[in-house]
């Protein structure tokens, strides 16, 4: 519990965001050590200035953090720090992943398969029907269904998932102790029993407009593919699609009639090659190779299922980066410096990575 209090406390310090927290963890080793590291050593950490160091000396945030941790226990809510083994692995791989998540639910946040379904709040019967048929076609693969608990396509995806026996997680722009919109309370309560509710915002936080785009990055980061069912020319669904593209995650869009305003966004995504066309469940199954047995060789003789979790994190970074410095690798893989060296050595012995000059590494 003590380390969890420190983890929450780091996020309460003014001026310390996710990037700074990850840098501090990389050099200090733990949230508790961030507070206990002498000023002289903190000064040597890249990007840590005098104001940040001064703020770290204010330990009054520990009392507030303890109250939050105790409330989480009372509300049966997990607090997931990005170094925890049960933090969503897919989300951990994105550069702007939140360092802390509040999660109330009973499903695994690291399922074998995960999809995000988003769309307009003014869903038509066409859009609702597509959501239902899509999930019916995917049900046998048991994907986790992620969305935003909003009106329209989002809530349709949650409700259909529940009816089909699929776990579903709602990512919210407010605290997990508040159901927004309130009219979705009954669905949200069912989701806690068959999925869950997730947020990066602490208890009592309200859904402010600026928090919705930030929420969308979590939706995109939690999934293997983001599916846009209906969308106008602008809105949250297209923001989520753009974010997913930025993360090099797959994006699919359902085409619609050119005269329908709610199909303009989807049609444009397809036309601009920002999304694959989705007309039936088999399109997604083929795109993500769900019909291929797990354990497929993905790089020379490397089988992903044989890698440990930390090795997977490093592998995911190295496959997109050649000759990356260990400091940058530590940050992108979100593994502390004292740990990444031993994991890299282990991967060298396995013939997966090779060390280069200047403390750089690459895949063999």
Give the arrangement of secondary structure elements.
Elements lengths: L1 H11 L5 H11 L2 H6 L2 H4 L7 H7 L4 H14 L3 E4 L7 H4 L7 E6 L8 E5 L6 H14 L5 E4 L5 H11 L4 E4 L13 H9 L1 E5 L11 H11 L3 E4 L7 H11 L3 E4 L10 H8 L4 E2 L3 H7 L9 E3 L2 E2 L5 H10 L5 E2 H8 L3 H13 L3 E4 L3 E4 L1
Parallel strand pairs: 3-4, 3-7, 4-5, 5-6, 7-8, 8-9
Antiparallel strand pairs: 1-2, 2-6, 10-11, 12-14, 13-14
Helix pairs in contact: 1-6, 8-9, 11-12, 15-16
In total, the number of strands is: 14
What's the mean pLDDT score?
91
Helix count from the secondary structure assignment: 17
Reported by name, the CATH topology of the largest domain is Rossmann fold
CATH hierarchy, class of the largest domain = Alpha Beta
Structurally, the number of domains stands at 3
Q: Residue ranges: pLDDT <50 for 5 or more in a row?
A: none
Q: What is the terminal separation in angstroms?
A: 41 Å
Using the alpha-carbon principal axes, give the shape. Answer: globular
The computed structural class is alpha/beta
Radius of gyration: 21 Å
Question: Residue share in helices?
Answer: 40-55%
User: Under the CATH scheme, which architecture of the largest domain would be assigned?
Assistant: 3-Layer(aba) Sandwich
β-strand percent reads 5-15%
Q: Spatial order of the strands in the main sheet?
A: 1-2-6-5-4-3-7-8-9
Major sheet summary line: 9 strands, mixed
